[in-house]
Amino acid sequence: MNKKTEFILKVVGCFCVSAVIAGTATLCLNSSTDKKTIEATEGVGGLEMPAIPQYDTLDKLNKLNSNLEEINGISESSEEVSSVAEEAAKEARKDVYALEEAEKKLIDDGLYYYSYRIKKGDMIGVIAEKYGVSQDTLISVNKIRATRTIQIGQNIKIPSLDGILYTVKKDGETAKSIADKYEVSADDVSNVNHVALDTSLKAGQSVFVPGAALDWVTRQEINGDLFRKPIHGYYRLTSYFGWRGSPFTGRRQFHGGMDMACPKNTPIYAAMEGTIVYKGWSNVYGNYVMIQHHSGYKTLYGHMNSFSNLKVGSYVTTNSVIGYVGTTGQSTGYHVHFTVFKNGRMVNPYNLWG
């Protein structure tokens, strides 16, 4: 058997499997009496509900189209090869059509929600995978600001479609303009939300955008993966972000960062890439460095024993050493004070670092 014939037979085999998958997808879509429930991975509690069909149609379509292109590109050296290639191509086109129809029916059937109660051990990523939607979908629909803060017993909504919930920013936006913004199908946005493509929407109105995703900064903020800890080795958290008793006066005061205790001269790293905008002295922070990042973020690193040789204006990454742990300024021992600012306001680093 020559290589071309062997390749085509493999492709035909792939198409047979794909045809079964496509047929199963269509069957799932047409079944209104499916009583299967999603099993819990661990813990107790929660609501049992019908399993949602999962369709990774984009990946399948890309694979089928890729195989189809390879078949069409073969130079037939015999009638046998030509015949097998032609049949395989026909099967490929049938599979592509079936998957496109399944995806279209899923959109046309409309948007509906399931209710799910968070139980012990649940994580947004695991729930999303189980229900065949993206993490972005669950985060957006439920307005989750930090995935680490979801609580046992909390109810969340799980939509029947993958996408995000968009809030109209200003009067006059349309299904088409929103679809263009997220580079998704305008017809899908129109159909799911039951509005015409050119209907003028009002500010504050919620629109479900099938197939859309959050931007990567928002996703990392919410998942707590935006920053890396400034100490890469051993450390001990000695003070958290929020109200506390002052270590000097005992009075209640607000602490705007995280204190990470570790040995003298431990290297301090930039928590995210950016540009050094200040390097100097403060009676409170002692020797400190401030870095400007993207998306309105700045970080401050205080109580340094000494600075590295990087200058103001230097571009840094998470592998850049900016200074060394000390106990300068108002400090009771060797540590680095780490503060995160978002548009000039202090935010809790604990919710943003991985």
Detailed description of the structure:
With 354 residues, the protein is α+β, with helices and mostly antiparallel strands. The protein has three domains: 3-41 and 50-109, Methane Monooxygenase Hydroxylase, Chain G, domain 1 (Up-down Bundle), CATH 1.20.58; 115-214, Membrane-bound Lytic Murein Transglycosylase D, Chain A; 236-351, Glucose Permease (Domain IIA) (Distorted Sandwich), CATH 2.70.70. 32% of the residues lie in helices and 24% in strands. The protein is built from eight helices and 16 strands. The strands form four sheets. Strands 5, 8, 9, 10, 11, 12, 13, 14, 15 and 16 form a ten-stranded antiparallel β-sheet that branches. The chain has a two-stranded antiparallel ribbon with strand order 1-2. β15 (335-342) and β16 form a beta hairpin. The longest helix is centred in the first third of the chain and has 30 residues, at 79-108. The chain is elongated and about 75 Å long. The relative contact order is 0.09. Mean pLDDT is 78; it is low at 2-12, 14-61 and 102-106.
Features:
3 domains, two-stranded antiparallel sheet, 16 strands, Membrane-bound Lytic Murein Transglycosylase D, Chain A, Methane Monooxygenase Hydroxylase, Chain G, domain 1, elongated, alpha+beta, ten-stranded antiparallel β-sheet, Glucose Permease (Domain IIA)
